[in-house]
Amino acid sequence: MDKIEYVYTFGMDAETIDRRLEENEVGVLALADDSSAYAVPVGYHYDGASLYVRLATDGSSTKMAYVETTTDACFCLYSNGSSDESWSILVHGPLRKLTGSKRERFDAATLNESFHRLYVFDQDVEALEPEIWELEMESVTGRKRGE
Q: Which SUPFAM superfamilies does UniProt cross-reference here (predicted)?
């Protein structure tokens, strides 16, 4: 009889979680509206204390409709590369749109330096408005494959 194969995983320490968040540029942001979920890959920036996601809207974005209704968002970053290097990080918390001087900190040059290129699909680039949202890191967990 065939058996299901298992791999033990273990918690990641805070230093490893910070390093992984700093080394990568794209993760998956999960949003919700009542019983309906929506997950989308997003560019993000982690500065060692805060996690920022860059979203773009032309006024008719599904993700922006979900952002408005999400109370507690989940950000997932993972690698399933080689069998001994698989890991995942989950960050939970509310999203807050940056405005005023906090938003001005991310001008065009800083956006290009801090975030992965912005991918667009069938949209007028001139009509897109990038928005920066901070994910309050209320809960952060990391798991890695065991030795």
A: FMN-binding split barrel (SSF50475)
